[in-house]
Design brief:
Strand order of the largest sheet: 5-6-4-14-15-16-13-17
Mean pLDDT: 96
Low-confidence stretches: none
Shape: globular
Largest sheet: 8 strands, mixed
Number of helices: 10
Oligomer: single chain
Number of strands: 19
Length: 373
């Protein structure tokens, strides 16, 4: 298309990724975010670009997104992109069988390799604890979730075709004109609304009830570890939650090895990634039934600390932050993202679930292709 003016509502990773795709195709973007800075799932996640657990039907899009993140990291160093890879540590024979099956059946593009315990410690010397082996995924990566969005906006502003309005809530959309809560009119040729987990309000007015749900999680961050954690890490419980690991080996794991009570109750896995400042972001839990609690439970944190210390073989530094977050997930597990057309020039885009940071750049590019931008 000829150069267009897009109004993008929502300053999280999806909204920002769509702005990045539009600017990259020569268009102009007006970007609205109801908070001064985005405060939703984007800045409360691990910052992982997670290839290892994605299902086969997501793999191509995930690898494209991984490539885009690497390109973005080269142009925008402030996002903190690093191709660190990951190791999923297994502690039982049944978990080992799942890891072996994953390597045997994997597409080579995933970069899977099964490492024995000694080799795990060579790749990631901070792991001095108890485990049998580790499933290494060389394609996994990380970005700094709390600094990525401001860095991307600075990059977009340098184009001269991008304007960001923080602390600005979209109230109405008529045609392709957005009126905000100060009565200002933002006119464009196309409106892309990326509401995150805000499924009511303007979202419902535009497209009614769409097939998405909200998921709540709890996470925490430690003080600096004092040594490099050279890869992201996961525990064997992550096999239970990522679709790539489905199969008879996982069925046997689930049948023969129950999760500890706290892990099962909170639908937990351990994921951990080291931030650039040296602290560890560790999580997480999954809660699906609303209304969600407004407080955080201590038991999951105690469980995560125990597992992490067992894998590290040392005490964790003090936990300095704990938080909860809510993200939007498409109900159909085969749907990567929900795009709902509200009118000729207005689209609502949400629902990537815990894949938003991983897939954001590719989803933005895919939307641009679908709309012929």
């Amino acid at each position: 298309m000829l150069d267009m003016r897009l109004v993008i509502i929502g300053g999280g990773i999806l909204g920002t990724a769509h702005a990045l795709a539009a600017i990259g195709r020569g268009h102009e973007v007006v970007h609205l975010e109801r908070e001064v800075e985005a405060r939703g799932a984007t800045v409360r996640n691990f910052g992982l670009v997670w290839v290892s657990g994605r299902s086969a039907n997501e793999l191509d899009l995930t690898l494209k997104s991984r490539q885009l993140w690497e390109e973005i990291g080269g142009k925008v160093p402030g996002v903190g992109f690093r191709p660190a890879g990951s190791i999923t540590l297994v502690r039982t024979e049944n978990e080992l069988a799942v890891a072996e099956a994953a390597v045997r059946d994997a597409d080579a593009a995933r970069g899977f390799e099964l490492l024995d315990a000694d080799r795990v410690r060579e790749v990631n010397p901070a792991l001095r604890g108890k485990f049998l082996a580790g499933l290494h995924c060389s394609t996994d990566a990380a970005v700094e979730s709390r600094q990525a969005l401001p860095a991307l906006r600075r990059y977009l502003e340098a184009s001269g075709r991008y304007s960001f309005f923080g602390g600005t809530e979209a109230r109405t959309i008529t045609g392709s004109t957005v009126v905000d809560d100060r009565g200002r009119r933002h006119e464009g040729d196309l409106v892309l609304f990326c509401p995150g987990a805000a499924h009511s309000g303007l979202t419902r007015e535009l497209v009614g009830d769409i097939p998405v749900r909200r998921v709540r999680l709890q996470m925490m961050q430690t003080a600096p570890l004092g040594e490099p954690l050279t890869t992201a890490i996961a525990d064997g419980d992550s096999f239970r939650y990522y679709p790539n690991f489905a199969g008879p080996e996982l069925d046997r794991l689930n049948a023969e090895e129950a999760q500890p009570f706290t892990a099962a109750q909170h639908k937990m896995q351990l994921l951990a990634v080291q931030r650039l400042h040296g602290g560890l972001t560790i999580g997480d839990t999954h809660e699906y039934d609303e209304p969600f609690n407004f407080d955080v439970d201590e038991a999951p944190y105690e469980h995560l600390v125990g597992v992490m210390e067992e894998l590290l073989g040392r005490k964790l530094p003090p936990v300095v932050r704990r938080w909860a977050g809510v993200y939007s997930q498409s109900i159909d597990p085969g749907t990567i993202v929900t795009r709902a057309q509200a009118s000729e020039n207005v689209w609502v885009i949400t629902g990537p679930g815990g894949r938003g940071m991983t897939l954001g750049p590719a989803i933005g590019a895919e939307t641009a292709d679908l709309l012929n931008l």
